[in-house]
Each structure stands twice: as C-alpha cells, then as structure tokens.
Design goal:
Blueprint lengths: L3 H12 L6 H17 L7 E6 L5 H9 L14 E8 L4 E7 L6 H8 L2 E4 L4 H15 L21 E8 L5 E5 L14 H15 L4 E8 L8 H9 L6 E6 L7 H12 L9 E3 L12 H11 L16 H40 L7 H23 L17 H19 L28 H7 L6 H6 L1 H4 L10 H12 L11 H9 L3 H27 L5 H35 L7 H21 L1 E9 L5 E11 L1 H4 L8 H39 L10 H6 L2 H8 L3 H25 L3
Parallel strand pairs: 1-6, 1-7, 2-5, 7-8, 8-9
Antiparallel strand pairs: 2-6, 3-4, 3-5, 10-11
Length: 749
C-alpha cells in the first residue's frame, strides 16, 4: 500500500496525543461549517461506517468518536447517525434530528423540534437520549409486547446529529448507518425493514464523495461478505473503500488468522485503501473505559500471530482514526473546487426557482399588486386579440383558437349567410337583385363553419346550464306542411279581409312577417351560443396564460370569482339578442329606410313590365343598311297593341291585386328588417355586450375588479398555499446558506 511509512508516522504522532497541523484542522472545520449550512442539499466529503448487524460496527465507532454506545438491542441503530467531534473551549454535547428530504412538512416540523443539550455522557444518559430520539422519529419498539408496534416502522430515514465539543476532542466526523440484516423477527422487523435498511446503506455508499468504512468480523472470510459486494457496486474501482476487520480474538482457526493477516498486510488486498484491524471490547469488558479498552487492544496485537502486523501501521483504533482523518482531508482538498461550482450552481437554480414563483403574496398589499399585474397582462392579450395583433404574444402562434376577432368574424359571416339563405319560412314568389330564387332549402356558402361543429367543440361544463336555459330558443321551428307563399297570403288575407277598397287590414303584414321570420330566433340564439363559446374559450386560455404554472391561482380566480361574472355577462348578451328579436317580431313594422320603397317599386315595376309584355305583338321590321336604305331583310320586334292597352286594368280581380301587393310589401319589409336585424345583433349583442362594451366579459378581469376585492377574496384567490410559502421560505434559507457556503469555500483557497 502506498505511503505506508508516512502513514505510520501519522499513527505514531496521534498515538502520542498529537493533533494534525493547523491547516488540516481548518479544512475539517470548514467542511463541518459547510455541513451545517447546506445539510443534505449538497453532497459533502464524509466517512460512512457500514456493515452487518453484530459485525462490531458499534465498537469501531466508539473507538473513533469516544461514544460508549448502549448495548441494549432495543437501542441498536435504527437510523443514520452523524457524529461530529470538534475541539472547543467548553465541553458540551448537542443532539438534534435532520429530517429526511422526503418527509412531509408536518413530520419535518415535528422532528425538527427535537433538540437536546448535555454536559456529560454516561451510558444511562445516552440510553435515554436514544429512546427519546426513537420516540420522536416514530420508531417501533423492538419489544414484541409493546403497544407502540401497531403502526410504526422499526427504522427511520431521518438522521440523528450528535455534536461532541470539548478542549481535548480530536476533529472528526463520521456517519453511522443501521447494520444490514437478512432475517425478519416476528413482531419486531419485517421484509420491508430489511429492504429499507439495505437501500439506506446503498444510498450512502454510492455517493462519490463518501469514504466507505466496511466493517467485517475477522472470523469469517471477507470474500463471502455481502457488504464488500455492495461496496464494489457503489465503488467499482474500490478506490474509496477501506475494510476494517473486527473481533480478531474470535478468529481461532489458523487458516482464518492467516487470511486476516494477509489482507491487512496487503499481500492479497483488492482494496486501494487496504484493510485495517481492531479489537473490540468483549462482553467481559463492559465495565472498562475506552482508554482501558485501547490498552487491552494494544496488548492483544503485541502477541503472535498478530504482532507481525504492527509494522504495517494498520493495527488498532489510533492508527485507523489517523488514517481515515488523513483520507478525509485529502478528499476534501480534492473536492473543494467541484464543491464551489456545485454550490454556485445550486445558488443559481434556487434563485431562478424563487424568481419564477414571483413576489411573495403574504399580505393584502402584495396579493392585490400580484393580481393587478395578472389583470394588466390579461387586458393586453384581450386588446391584441380584438385588434388582430397576433404577433404581440406567442400564445397566438400556438393555434388559431385564441385569435378571437378572427373567430368572431367567421361566426358573424356564418350567421349573416344563414339568415340570408335560410332565415325565411317560405320562398318569395318573385325576387329581384342578388337574392332572386332563394328558398329555405339553401345552405350557406362553403367554408363557413356550421353551428353544430362549433357547439361540439366546447369542453366547458360550466356553460351547460346557461345553454340549457335557452334550449327552447335554439330549437328549430316546425315547417312541415308549409304551403306556397302566395297560397299562404291568400289564406291569411281571406281570414282577415274587411271592407277595405283596394287595400288590406293593418294586422296582415305584422302577422305574415312574424310567420316569415320565425326561424330567426333559432338562428340568432345559435349564433349567440357560438360566439359565447369562442369568447369563453379565449378568456379561459388567456387567464391560464397569465396565471402561474401551478394552476392554483387560475382555479381560484376562475371558479371563485370570474366564472359567475362571466355567466352574468353571457346572459345579458343573449337576453339582449332576444330583446332585439322581440322588437322586430312583436312590435309594429316600421322603417325609414328608403330601400323599402325602392324594392317595393322595383317589384311593382317588374309586375307592370310583365303585364306590358303581354300586350305587345310581334311584327317584322325591315333592316336598313349604313345609308338608311332597306336591305330586303327583316327582324322581329315587339310593338304595343293599342286595343289591348285600353283593357289592361280589367284583367285582374281586386283580391288578386291585393295579394300580390301584400307579397311585395312583405318581401320589401322583410329584406330591410333582416339586414337591419343582423346588423344590430352583431353590433349590439355581439360587439357591445360580448366584446367591447363596458360590461363585456373581456372587461371583467381588470384593475377595478382587483381593487374591489375584499381581504378574504384576495387571500382566497392570490394567497399562497402553505406548501408554497414553505417552499419560498426554504429557497430563501437555502440561498442564504449557499451564499455563506461559497464564502467558506472561497476562504479555503
């Protein structure tokens, strides 16, 4: 093994009570300070003692630390124990529990409150201390009849921390983990406990900054020991594993003694750090002090066959203690640059996470400020969506569904097209202009989304109650058995005619207009539902976009406040659409639009033209050349028959004339009313009530809403959960500790 001679001198110095030089003590002090600052947040150089139960592990720890561990099986190691010995002017012992990283917040708080300070150690005081620690960690008693066995574990993943301070203490830190065992004990341990301990040991061994001190009894062949197999898995090159043979007094057979001697002597060692050997205090040595035990150990190794190992410097607790301290110091020096980089990285990641959580929301002022920022971000998204400014935020690039005004224009186009092509109950007999020949069977032009497709897109159960309230308004009117419009006009006229001369009653047009426009309600309410779905989808997506990733603020804001206000605004918009419909259908027809008379006159003129055409006769007219001379050819030409013209007014009955006139008036007014109605629905019910008006759902989440929230509402919506506050507090403490740790590390250069 390298550096044997030098290592022996270190052992001899320590055996005389000498301490490592001041620089090394400073390094050990710094690593202890780092351990206090970063805890388990950063892997630190450490020494871990592992082995099977009854392997002599406790005796080795006693020799290294000066602690006389209790021998009671009830108090054997049930958790990892960090033992630190440090030179201080006053003697004291401080004991606490470091919570497991996976522990719940309540459990962390409970075990974190465990603190004990002692002036001296006795077996009795230590036994009491371990009993209280077991209770604090919720460890099941190993006594079968104990009532504490019901729902507790026999082991814990918390860590007991013991600091032993005093003027004569050697600077040393070691971690003890429970001993591995393979058989369960009924009522005491279980298969789950076996696996838990095994995994705990493996977890500590696999850390690349850990020196593994593998404890094995001398009276068995180390090649058969599972602890070395586990060490090889964690440390394939076996470069940070040191084996310690115990209980040499039990190795009676010569073969076993020779194996132990050859391993310690290095003739058959497969470990870079080699094998050491110590003698444990036996059952008859319980009353002896540690000093007396070490004296017996020295005497034991002075006798054959063990005496030949004394020259190796690998015999006895003093030699072991000096070597592991030396290894620890070398490891610390080697790892300091990496530790600086790792701590700096931890500080940066903690700072980034804390920054991503935003400002703390612990009081009314910070909660209101936080919500106000969210509302401003939402309003900015809404303005961009209404102005079709889709390059202002990446959310518009993820899909077209949040491009609000584009979706609304599509819906308005669908509505206008539906009203134009299918809004009338019966096709008019004659038409002029662009709408000639339309019937109720026509469908909108290609590319316009159908209502059914839009309605099926919604995944918002909160809208179902709203839509159910308007279900009757959306139902299609029954048009089965509808007769031709002229027959319908004749039926209405005959049922309502009076003694009017060449005219008709005042109720005829309103009655017929209401019948002719009865599809408007279904089409209009479908349109309103389609627009509400588009608006609701945008608002939900926009609020999710501006709210934090954890989703809690969104759900509280959405469910506790916004949703009710949104539903109210949707109802106002849909009720206004119904109000506009009632005005058109229930009140007396009225229009000042000159297109009414223009259309009526065109229809009347077209009828007159048809009559005039019937009064014409065809004659052959000569075709003239360029000099206005007959060419001999003729062409047909319509000319009036004066005799027929005199009788033109006598070929139509008075009732027939009135029916046609009613048709033309109804058609002219329907066309003007439909265009007007479509415009006001889109302008008022859609644009004002759902998009741009003061009560628009897009205006609900704004600064004024935030200002109007009371303290309870603010806390409900924006207040942080306890786990968030604890996380924020932990990140703040971690950052503080990481900064201090960096100072410690820089001071070690």
């Amino acid at each position: 093994m390298p550096r044997i001679a030098n290592m022996g001198s270190v052992v001899r110095d320590v055996s005389r009570g000498e301490q490592p030089n001041h620089g090394n003590l400073a390094i050990l002090t710094r690593i202890d300070k780092l351990r206090e600052l970063v805890g388990t947040g950063v892997s630190l150089p450490q020494l871990v003692v592992v082995g099977d139960q009854s392997s002599g592990k406790s005796s080795v720890l006693e020799g290294l630390t000066g602690f006389a561990f209790p021998r009671d099986a009830e108090l054997c190691t049930r958790y990892a124990t960090q033992i630190t010995c440090r030179r201080e002017s006053e003697e004291s012992i401080n004991v606490s529990i470091i919570p497991s990283p996976d522990a719940s917040s309540d459990e962390r708080e409970r075990v974190g409150n465990f603190h004990h300070a002692m002036k001296e150690m006795t077996p009795q005081s230590l036994a009491k201390l371990f009993t209280e620690a077991n209770e604090a960690m919720g460890i099941r008693s190993t006594v079968k009849s104990s009532a504490k066995n019901s729902d507790r574990s026999a082991f814990s993943e918390h860590m007991l921390k013991i600091e032993k301070l005093g003027p004569t203490e050697d600077h040393f830190t070691v971690i003890d983990v429970p001993g591995i065992f393979r058989k369960e004990t009924e009522g005491v341990t279980t298969e789950a406990d076996i696996e838990l301990v095994r995994n705990m040991v493996i977890k500590y061994m696999k850390d690349s900054r850990t020196i593994i001190l593998a404890i094995m009894p001398s009276n068995v062949d180390p090649a058969t020991q599972e602890i070395l197999k586990l060490a090889r898995n964690a440390d394939p090159k076996m470069a940070r594993t040191m084996a310690v043979l115990t209980k040499p007094d039990l190795a009676i057979e010569k073969t076993i003694q020779n194996i132990a001697i050859s391993l310690v002597g290095g003739t058959r060692s497969d470990l870079t750090l080699g094998y050491y050997i110590v003698k444990n205090r036996g059952p008859d040595d319980v009353g002896k002090t540690l000093e007396e035990g070490q004296a017996d150990e020295k005497k034991f190794f002075s006798k054959a066959p063990w005496s030949e190992l004394r020259s190796t410097g690998k015999v006895g607790i003093p030699a072991l203690k000096a070597r592991v301290r030396e290894l620890l110091i070398d490891l610390i020096k080697r790892e300091f640059p990496k530790l600086r980089a790792e701590v700096a990285k931890k500080l940066s990641s903690s700072s980034a996470e804390l920054s991503s959580m935003g400002q703390s929301r612990a009081d009314q002022h910070t909660q209101r400020t936080y919500l106000n920022r969210l509302s401003e971000s939402f309003q900015a998204l809404a303005r961009d969506a209404l102005n079709a400014y889709y390059s202002g935020h990446p959310v518009f690039e993820d899909g077209d569904d949040l491009r609000l005004i584009t979706r609304i224009v599509e819906a308005n186009d669908w509505y206008a097209e539906q009203m134009r092509t299918t809004g009338h109950t019966r096709a008019f007999a004659k038409s002029t202009g662009s709408e000639t020949g339309q019937s109720q069977a026509e469908t909108p032009s290609a590319g316009v989304p159908l209502f059914q497709d839009i309605f099926q897109e919604t995944h918002y159960p909160e809208l179902e109650e709203l839509f159910n309230a308007y279900a009757l308004d959306v139902a299609e009117p029954n048009t089965d058995g509808e007769v031709d419009i002229m027959k319908y006009i004749d039926q209405v006229y005959r049922r309502s005619r009076g003694q009017e001369l060449g005219t008709f009653g005042a109720t005829v047009i309103p009655t017929m207009f209401k019948e002719q426009s009865k599809k408007w309600k279904s089409l209009t309410m479908k349109h309103m539902i389609a627009v509400v779905i588009r608006v609701h989808h945008f608002i939900s997506g926009a609020v999710k976009t501006v709210c934090p990733d954890d989703g809690r603020v969104y759900h509280e804001l959405w469910n506790e406040y916004l949703l009710d206000e949104l539903l109210k605004s949707y109802r106002r918009a849909m009720d206004h659409a119904k109000f506009l419909l009632e005005i058109e259908q229930e009140e007396a027809p009225i229009t000042l639009n000159h297109y009414f008379n223009d259309t009526l006159q065109k229809d009347q003129s077209s009828r007159f033209v048809e009559v005039v055409k019937a009064l014409c006769v065809t004659k052959q007219t000569p075709i003239l050349d360029g000099y206005n001379q007959p060419t001999g050819a003729t062409k047909p030409e319509l000319v009036f028959d004066e005799a027929l013209m005199k009788n033109v007014s006598l070929n139509m009955a008075n009732s027939e004339y009135v029916r046609e006139f009613i048709h033309d008036v109804l058609k002219s007014y329907y066309k003007v009313s439909r265009k007007r109605f479509v415009d006001v629905v889109c302008q008022q019910a859609v644009n004002h009530y759902l998009l741009a008006g003061r009560g628009s759902p897009l205006k609900i989440f704004n600064t004024q809403m935030v200002l109007d929230l009371n303290e309870d509402q603010l806390d409900m919506i924006a207040g942080e959960d306890s786990h968030v506050r604890l996380r924020r507090e932990k990140l703040g403490n971690d950052m503080k500790n990481f900064r201090e740790a960096l100072k410690v590390l820089r001071g070690s250069d």
